[in-house]
Design a protein that fits this description.
The complex is a heterotrimer of chains A (about 240), B (about 280) and C (about 325). By secondary structure, chain A is an alpha/beta fold. Chain A contains ten helices and ten strands. Chain A has a domain of about 70 residues. The longest helix of chain A has 14 residues. The model of chain A has no long low-confidence stretch (mean pLDDT about 90). Chain B is mainly alpha-helical and about 280 residues long. Chain B has one domain: Orthogonal Bundle (ABC transporter involved in vitamin B12 uptake, BtuC), CATH 1.10.3470. Chain B is about 75% helix and about 5% strand. Chain B contains eleven helices and four strands; from the N terminus they run ααααβββααααβααα. A two-stranded antiparallel sheet of chain C has the order 1-2. Chain C has 15 helices and two strands. The chains are: A alpha/beta (about 240), B mainly alpha (about 280), C mainly alpha (about 325).
Chain lengths: ~240, ~280, ~325
């Protein structure tokens, strides 16, 4: 079975340190897959490896059946993968509108429709359209980053810890919007906040010390107190 | 009054030439974090090849086109073979581009001979006219016009076009712009080539302005470009325009009123800026 | 000192040093001795540069100002006072003090900033020194320069040879000692990773400033020797070309080796004197900078350790393979 995104036995180093030892998982089309794990387990590096930002030493990554391991980031992005990094990667001196414009490879009916849809989801962005990205609040930055990744006809979104550093009420809003985007695109989500992730995830993988150690359906995990305690420190 | 005015025009014209030279350097630094000491080499190659074409064909415009073409080509070579191996290390960049600068400068002597060359503006840009008591020299006005034209062209490019936005975004966050599907290396190369072409154009215009060119101008103008970029703030496009005009005006006025110090003007300006405001006079942060 | 503990390489250097003092008995021609003196002078100058670039990773574009300070202090003192050895000693001290103060000020002001700021400020100051030398005609004679008398003993090229050779040897061993000391190890740590060294608790700025002061003083001393061998001074001792020469010497010879810059100095001086002479044969020899510039670029990219560093690496690899 060749699934939508398939990551198998990926290993990666940053400088001389092994960060990823053996990462394997797959992301089925149309679902939300969540990578869970403690701080420093290798979740962010996994996303970076998929994007081609961190070189992969061993293993394979395929997207829609094609090998994309260690391709240049822009080529991977142009295959239809959108990326929301941990720090959101907002271009601070560009306005909200300019941030969106940089992201739009084409301007046609379809992107226009996607743009309208996402702006309806995040009316704040429309309100601050001419404000520099650096002056947005944390939640607004997150919304901008997600919109920017979505606006091209990307079939897969990699979203790195969207709840990080946000107030609970804002987290809810962001999560709610990701829930709505689920209808339209496939999502690979990295999250530390289990409560949040459990609300929108279909499948989960747990990464610990650079390895995928557990996997399953999200609603099974909710029942499994032992697992939660062991890898996520939730009791 | 008329003296003040002609000094100002003088300084403005010089400033515009310096701006064209420094603009490429500051772009390259801002976008790629590259310190390019070979920039003056591109300047003299633009000057010599442009003047050669101009004197061979009699077409000043042909000279300008040649200079720009040579600038683009040398920019390609410099980025591809000189700068690309040393991305990320300032020390190595300074060393290698300085070495390349020397080679470019000596190659000028090999190709065009070691003696200086005399140049004059084309007939349709020569001459002057008088309004009131002020003398306007046509070629200087021409340079000022070209300088502003190019500044506003780039200003428009950066503000209004997606290409310009990509360049600005690339300065801020290289990884993110790649993750949005932009081939940043290609953008780098193009910016480098455009920067080199601006330097070459500056060289060609300067040749007819000062009336004489010689190979050692390469190092002199490399240094001058850096002085301006440091004063304006490394990587700051608008800053380099203001700094170039400041340097041009100061030069003009010092040469008239305090000739003893005129040689030291640039160095003094830069030393003051480095000591009191190392991020540059016109830096925002 | 236990002789058995002395490194083998030290003995090699000691032996070579003794050879240096034999040379003038063999090469008795004035012009040959003059050339070798130039090599010694620029060897010292390049070593002082290596201390900055090779050991600490600081680029200076105005190193020539220290050289020029040494040259002018000496020339002016010999011009104003009786040409005695006392004046000579005074020249060394005064130039050292000026160079020390200047490098201290520059260092404190810019060494905390990114590498290119030091390069640019030294460039600016060297430019100001050059303009100063051109404008302060009463003292310097402007761009025409002036000649001056020397103590009788220093007029003899053999004596001057001995003085320069001795200086080279002593400075070489002095700096070698310094770079092999714990202090020198910290410098290398700064070059390799400045922020890590800082986080280990070292006051990086202090180390850098001290190095720049030592380097400035040594450079000014080379300027003193240089001007003694010329017996004439003009503004060319402040020319940017000299900084570039010394940069070429250091890089081509091998950064961070001390002996490399001396070898680099020999090569460049050789090129200055003999390749330029060859221009009668073919004009291309006049443009020897192209050759050296190309070598320089290739070395920066492919052999960042220069001639000496690369040879040393090869030697160790070869020895490791044999055992």
């Amino acid at each position: 079975m060749s699934s939508f995104l398939e990551v198998s036995h990926v290993r990666a180093n940053i400088e001389q340190y092994h960060i990823l030892h053996d990462i394997s998982f797959h992301v089925p089309k149309g679902e939300v897959t969540v990578l869970l794990g403690r701080n420093g387990a290798g979740k962010t590096t996994t996303l970076r490896s998929i994007m081609g930002l961190t070189p992969v030493i061993a293993g394979e990554i395929t997207f829609k059946g094609e090998k994309i391991r260690n391709q240049k980031p822009h080529l991977i992005a142009n295959r239809g993968i959108g990326y929301v990094p941990e720090d959101q990667g907002i271009f601070h001196d560009l306005t909200v509108g300019e941030n969106m414009r940089v992201a739009m490879k084409k301007e046609n009916e379809e992107t226009k429709e996607r743009m309208d849809w996402i702006l309806d989801l995040f009316p704040d962005l429309k309100k601050f359209w001419n404000k520099p990205g650096g002056q947005l609040s944390g939640g607004q930055k997150q919304m901008l980053a997600i919109s920017r990744a979505y606006v091209n006809d990307n079939e897969l979104l990699l979203i790195d810890e969207p709840s990080k550093g946000l107030a609970p009420i804002v987290v809810e809003k962001v999560m709610d919007s990701i829930h709505q985007m689920k209808e339209r695109t496939t999502i690979l989500l990295v999250e530390q906040n289990f409560m949040m992730a459990s609300g929108i995830g279909d499948r989960f993988y747990i990464i610990d010390d650079g390895q995928t150690v557990q996997q399953g359906q999200m609603n099974e995990l909710k029942q499994d107190g032992v697992l939660l305690q062991k890898y996520l420190g939730i009791s | 009054m008329d003296v003040l005015f002609s000094l100002a025009i003088n300084g403005l014209a010089t400033g515009m030439l310096i701006f064209l030279l420094a603009a490429g350097l500051t772009l390259i630094f801002g976008l790629m974090d590259v310190l390019n000491f070979a920039h003056g080499g591109l300047f003299i190659w633009g000057a010599y090849t442009g003047v050669w074409t101009y004197q061979m064909t009699g077409s000043f415009l042909g000279g300008i086109v040649t200079a720009i073409g040579v600038g683009l080509l040398l920019g390609l070579v410099t980025e591809r073979f000189i700068v690309r191996p040393v991305y990320g290390s300032h020390v190595q960049q300074i060393l290698i581009t300085l070495g390349f600068m020397l080679v470019l400068q000596e190659c000028i002597k090999v190709v065009f001979g070691p003696d200086q060359k005399i140049v004059s503006p084309p007939s349709y840009l020569e001459g002057s006219f008088i309004i009131g008591e002020i003398v306007f020299i046509n070629y200087r006005l021409f340079i000022i016009a070209v300088g502003f034209l190019i500044y506003f062209a780039f200003y428009y490019l950066f503000k209004k076009t997606r290409v310009g936005l990509i360049v600005r975004a690339g300065v801020m966050n290289k990884e993110m712009i790649q993750s949005l599907g932009v081939n940043i290396k290609l953008v780098f190369l193009l910016v480098f080539m455009v920067g080199a072409a601006l330097a070459a154009l500056s060289g060609m215009l300067h040749a007819a302005y000062s009336g004489v060119i010689y190979a050692e101008m390469g190092l002199e103008f490399s240094i001058l470009a850096f002085i301006v970029v440091v004063i304006g703030g490394m990587g700051n496009f608008k800053g380099s325009l203001l700094a170039a005009i400041l340097v041009g005006l100061t030069q003009a006025f010092m040469a008239y009123y305090v000739p003893a110090l005129s040689l030291a003007t640039n160095m003094l300006l830069m030393a003051i800026v480095l000591v009191f405001r190392p991020q540059g006079l016109f830096a925002l942060r | 000192m236990n002789l058995a503990q002395v490194e083998k390489s030290t003995w090699v250097y000691v032996a070579i040093s003794f050879l240096l003092f034999v040379v003038p008995f063999i090469a008795t021609g004035r012009s040959v001795q003059f050339l070798i003196i130039q090599i010694f002078v620029f060897g010292i100058f390049a070593m002082s540069y290596d201390l900055l670039l090779g050991y600490t990773g600081i680029i200076s574009f105005g190193h020539v100002m220290f050289f020029g300070v040494g040259a002018y202090s000496t020339a002016v003192l010999f011009d104003r006072f009786d040409p005695t050895m006392l004046t000579f000693a005074l020249a060394i001290i005064i130039s050292g003090v000026i160079a020390g103060i200047v490098s201290l000020i520059v260092g404190v002001l810019t060494l905390r900033l990114k590498s290119h700021f030091y390069a640019m400020l030294t460039l600016a100051l060297a430019g100001l020194f050059l303009v100063g030398a051109e404008k302060w005609r009463k003292l310097t004679g402007g761009s025409d320069g002036f000649t001056f008398g020397l103590p009788d003993i220093l007029r003899d090229s053999f004596a001057l040879y001995i003085v320069s050779a001795l200086s080279l040897v002593l400075i070489f061993f002095g700096l070698r000692r310094m770079t092999k000391s714990p202090f020198g190890k910290v410098l290398v740590a700064i070059r390799e990773n400045e922020s890590r060294t800082e986080s280990l608790g070292y006051q990086v700025l202090h180390y850098k400033v001290i190095v720049s002061v030592v380097s400035g003083i040594v450079a000014s001393y080379s300027g003193v020797l240089y001007i003694l061998s010329l017996r004439f001074v003009d503004t060319s001792v402040f020319a940017t070309d000299l900084t570039i020469d010394v940069l070429l010497m250091t890089i081509i010879g091998g950064v961070g080796t001390l002996i490399g810059p001396i070898i680099g100095a020999s090569l460049i001086e050789f090129a200055h004197h003999w390749l330029s002479d060859l221009s009668d044969v073919h004009w291309i020899f006049e443009r020897w900078i192209i050759l050296y510039g190309t070598i320089f670029i290739l070395i920066v990219v492919f052999f960042p350790k220069g001639i000496v560093g690369t040879l040393v690496d090869r030697f160790y690899k070869w020895r490791a393979r044999r055992t």
